[in-house]
Amino acid sequence: MPVLIAVSPAEAEIEVRRSRFLAKAHPVDTEADAQAWLKAHADRSATHNCWAFRIGDLHRCFDDGEPGGTAGRPILAAIEHANMQQVAVLVIRHFGGIKLGTGGLARAYGAAAAECLQRVECIERVPMTSVTLQIPFHATSAVYQLLPVHQATPTDETYLDDGLTMTVALPQQQRDVFCQQLTDTTRGAVTIVKAPLK
Protein backbone atom coordinates (compact mmCIF):
# COMPACT_ATOMS: atom_id res chain seq x y z
CA MET A 1 0.00 0.00 0.00
CA PRO A 2 1.54 3.36 -0.98
CA VAL A 3 2.47 5.71 1.83
CA LEU A 4 1.20 9.28 1.52
CA ILE A 5 3.84 11.96 2.06
CA ALA A 6 2.48 15.35 3.13
CA VAL A 7 3.60 18.21 0.86
CA SER A 8 1.28 21.09 1.82
CA PRO A 9 0.00 22.70 5.03
CA ALA A 10 -3.70 22.64 5.89
CA GLU A 11 -6.16 23.83 8.55
CA ALA A 12 -9.60 22.80 9.73
CA GLU A 13 -11.78 23.86 12.64
CA ILE A 14 -14.65 22.08 14.35
CA GLU A 15 -16.81 23.03 17.33
CA VAL A 16 -17.94 20.49 19.90
CA ARG A 17 -20.25 21.69 22.70
CA ARG A 18 -18.89 25.23 22.47
CA SER A 19 -15.23 24.14 22.55
CA ARG A 20 -13.34 25.11 19.39
CA PHE A 21 -10.74 22.71 18.00
CA LEU A 22 -8.46 24.29 15.40
CA ALA A 23 -6.28 21.71 13.66
CA LYS A 24 -3.17 22.61 11.68
CA ALA A 25 -1.03 20.18 9.67
CA HIS A 26 2.38 20.81 8.16
CA PRO A 27 4.98 18.77 6.24
CA VAL A 28 8.10 17.98 8.31
CA ASP A 29 11.29 16.07 7.49
CA THR A 30 12.89 15.63 10.91
CA GLU A 31 11.91 15.62 14.57
CA ALA A 32 13.66 18.98 14.97
CA ASP A 33 11.53 20.40 12.11
CA ALA A 34 8.38 19.07 13.79
CA GLN A 35 9.24 20.46 17.22
CA ALA A 36 10.19 23.87 15.80
CA TRP A 37 6.96 24.12 13.79
CA LEU A 38 4.81 23.00 16.74
CA LYS A 39 6.46 25.54 19.04
CA ALA A 40 6.05 28.35 16.50
CA HIS A 41 2.34 27.63 15.89
CA ALA A 42 1.10 26.88 19.40
CA ASP A 43 -1.47 29.40 20.65
CA ARG A 44 -0.48 30.42 24.17
CA SER A 45 -3.92 31.92 24.77
CA ALA A 46 -5.59 28.55 24.12
CA THR A 47 -6.60 26.05 26.79
CA HIS A 48 -4.54 23.23 25.25
CA ASN A 49 -2.08 22.77 22.36
CA CYS A 50 -2.04 19.03 21.64
CA TRP A 51 -0.10 17.42 18.84
CA ALA A 52 1.33 14.39 17.11
CA PHE A 53 3.76 13.78 14.29
CA ARG A 54 4.91 10.86 12.19
CA ILE A 55 8.19 10.78 10.29
CA GLY A 56 9.01 7.36 8.85
CA ASP A 57 9.02 4.95 11.79
CA LEU A 58 9.30 7.80 14.32
CA HIS A 59 6.12 9.07 15.96
CA ARG A 60 5.40 11.23 18.99
CA CYS A 61 2.28 12.67 20.60
CA PHE A 62 1.49 15.10 23.43
CA ASP A 63 -1.67 15.70 25.48
CA ASP A 64 -0.74 19.12 26.93
CA GLY A 65 -2.70 18.67 30.15
CA GLU A 66 -5.69 16.84 28.73
CA PRO A 67 -6.40 13.45 30.39
CA GLY A 68 -3.81 10.88 29.25
CA GLY A 69 -4.53 9.38 25.84
CA THR A 70 -7.45 11.69 25.00
CA ALA A 71 -5.67 14.13 22.67
CA GLY A 72 -2.23 13.26 21.28
CA ARG A 73 -3.03 9.60 20.73
CA PRO A 74 -6.28 10.29 18.75
CA ILE A 75 -4.38 12.84 16.63
CA LEU A 76 -1.67 10.24 15.92
CA ALA A 77 -4.36 7.65 15.16
CA ALA A 78 -5.85 10.03 12.56
CA ILE A 79 -2.41 10.37 10.92
CA GLU A 80 -1.97 6.59 10.89
CA HIS A 81 -5.49 6.04 9.56
CA ALA A 82 -4.70 8.44 6.70
CA ASN A 83 -1.52 6.38 6.05
CA MET A 84 0.39 9.68 6.04
CA GLN A 85 4.01 10.38 6.92
CA GLN A 86 6.34 13.39 7.14
CA VAL A 87 3.56 15.36 8.82
CA ALA A 88 2.93 17.14 12.13
CA VAL A 89 -0.57 17.96 13.36
CA LEU A 90 -1.34 20.52 16.07
CA VAL A 91 -4.86 20.76 17.51
CA ILE A 92 -5.53 23.92 19.49
CA ARG A 93 -8.48 23.80 21.89
CA HIS A 94 -10.34 26.80 23.21
CA PHE A 95 -12.51 25.53 26.08
CA GLY A 96 -16.18 26.43 25.75
CA GLY A 97 -17.27 25.83 29.32
CA ILE A 98 -18.76 22.35 28.91
CA LYS A 99 -16.67 19.30 29.83
CA LEU A 100 -16.62 16.64 27.14
CA GLY A 101 -15.44 13.61 29.12
CA THR A 102 -12.58 11.39 28.01
CA GLY A 103 -14.51 9.76 25.15
CA GLY A 104 -15.77 13.10 23.90
CA LEU A 105 -12.29 14.60 24.01
CA ALA A 106 -10.75 11.70 22.10
CA ARG A 107 -13.46 11.89 19.43
CA ALA A 108 -13.13 15.68 19.09
CA TYR A 109 -9.34 15.71 18.79
CA GLY A 110 -9.39 12.79 16.37
CA ALA A 111 -12.16 14.36 14.26
CA ALA A 112 -10.40 17.73 14.04
CA ALA A 113 -7.14 16.06 12.99
CA ALA A 114 -8.89 13.84 10.44
CA GLU A 115 -10.75 16.79 8.92
CA CYS A 116 -7.49 18.71 8.60
CA LEU A 117 -5.57 15.77 7.10
CA GLN A 118 -8.19 15.41 4.36
CA ARG A 119 -7.10 18.85 3.12
CA VAL A 120 -3.36 18.08 3.03
CA GLU A 121 -1.87 17.60 -0.44
CA CYS A 122 0.20 14.44 -0.64
CA ILE A 123 2.38 12.45 -2.97
CA GLU A 124 2.45 8.66 -3.00
CA ARG A 125 5.57 6.74 -2.13
CA VAL A 126 5.71 3.00 -2.67
CA PRO A 127 7.60 1.26 0.18
CA MET A 128 10.74 -0.37 -1.24
CA THR A 129 13.01 -3.18 -0.10
CA SER A 130 16.06 -4.98 -1.43
CA VAL A 131 17.01 -8.55 -2.19
CA THR A 132 20.52 -9.91 -2.75
CA LEU A 133 20.86 -12.74 -5.27
CA GLN A 134 23.72 -15.16 -5.84
CA ILE A 135 23.25 -16.19 -9.46
CA PRO A 136 25.14 -18.93 -11.33
CA PHE A 137 25.96 -17.89 -14.92
CA HIS A 138 23.44 -20.30 -16.47
CA ALA A 139 20.56 -18.55 -14.60
CA THR A 140 21.44 -14.91 -15.36
CA SER A 141 19.20 -14.55 -18.38
CA ALA A 142 16.16 -15.85 -16.41
CA VAL A 143 16.87 -13.35 -13.66
CA TYR A 144 17.17 -10.40 -16.07
CA GLN A 145 13.88 -11.35 -17.72
CA LEU A 146 12.04 -11.32 -14.37
CA LEU A 147 13.35 -7.96 -13.14
CA PRO A 148 11.05 -5.65 -15.17
CA VAL A 149 8.04 -7.88 -14.48
CA HIS A 150 8.37 -7.08 -10.76
CA GLN A 151 9.60 -3.45 -11.08
CA ALA A 152 12.97 -4.60 -9.73
CA THR A 153 16.11 -2.58 -10.47
CA PRO A 154 19.70 -3.78 -9.96
CA THR A 155 21.58 -1.48 -7.57
CA ASP A 156 24.82 -3.48 -7.33
CA GLU A 157 26.41 -6.28 -9.36
CA THR A 158 29.64 -8.16 -8.58
CA TYR A 159 30.95 -10.77 -11.00
CA LEU A 160 32.52 -13.89 -9.50
CA ASP A 161 34.25 -16.94 -11.01
CA ASP A 162 31.04 -18.99 -11.01
CA GLY A 163 28.38 -16.29 -11.51
CA LEU A 164 27.43 -12.96 -9.99
CA THR A 165 26.02 -11.40 -6.87
CA MET A 166 23.29 -8.86 -7.56
CA THR A 167 21.34 -6.61 -5.21
CA VAL A 168 17.99 -5.41 -6.52
CA ALA A 169 15.55 -2.79 -5.23
CA LEU A 170 11.85 -3.51 -5.65
CA PRO A 171 8.46 -2.62 -4.13
CA GLN A 172 7.88 -4.44 -0.84
CA GLN A 173 4.60 -5.89 -2.07
CA GLN A 174 6.40 -7.52 -5.02
CA ARG A 175 9.20 -9.12 -2.99
CA ASP A 176 7.72 -12.49 -2.06
CA VAL A 177 6.14 -13.06 -5.48
CA PHE A 178 9.43 -12.15 -7.19
CA CYS A 179 11.44 -14.50 -4.97
CA GLN A 180 9.01 -17.38 -5.47
CA GLN A 181 8.93 -16.92 -9.23
CA LEU A 182 12.72 -16.68 -9.32
CA THR A 183 13.03 -19.94 -7.37
CA ASP A 184 10.50 -21.68 -9.64
CA THR A 185 12.02 -20.39 -12.89
CA THR A 186 15.63 -21.26 -11.99
CA ARG A 187 14.72 -24.47 -10.12
CA GLY A 188 16.29 -23.15 -6.95
CA ALA A 189 19.63 -22.31 -8.57
CA VAL A 190 19.60 -18.74 -7.23
CA THR A 191 20.38 -18.09 -3.57
CA ILE A 192 18.14 -15.32 -2.21
CA VAL A 193 18.87 -13.11 0.82
CA LYS A 194 15.99 -10.81 1.74
CA ALA A 195 16.57 -7.52 3.56
CA PRO A 196 14.31 -7.09 6.62
CA LEU A 197 11.12 -5.17 5.85
CA LYS A 198 10.82 -1.80 7.55
Describe what you observe in this structure.
- The model has no long low-confidence stretch (mean pLDDT 91).
- The protein is α+β, with helices and mostly antiparallel strands.
- The chain is built from five helices and twelve strands.
- It is 30% helix and 39% strand.
- The chain starts with a strand and ends with a strand.
- A hairpin with a 2-residue loop joins strand 4 and strand 5.
- Helix 2 runs parallel beside helix 3.
- Strands 2-3-7-4-5 form a five-stranded antiparallel β-sheet, sandwiched between helices. A four-stranded antiparallel β-sheet has the order 10-11-9-12.
- It is elongated.
- The longest helix is centred in the middle third of the chain and has 17 residues.
- The chain has two domains: 122 residues, Impact, N-terminal domain (Ribosomal Protein S5, domain 2), CATH 3.30.230.30; 68 residues, Alpha-Beta Plaits.
Keywords:
39% strand; 5-stranded antiparallel beta sheet; single chain; alpha+beta; 198 residues; 2 domains; 5 helices; elongated; Alpha-Beta Plaits; Ribosomal Protein S5, domain 2
Count of alpha and pi helical runs = 5
- Helices and strands, in order, run as EEEHEEHEEHEEHEEHE
Multimerization state: single chain
CATH class of the largest domain: Alpha Beta
Structural shape: elongated
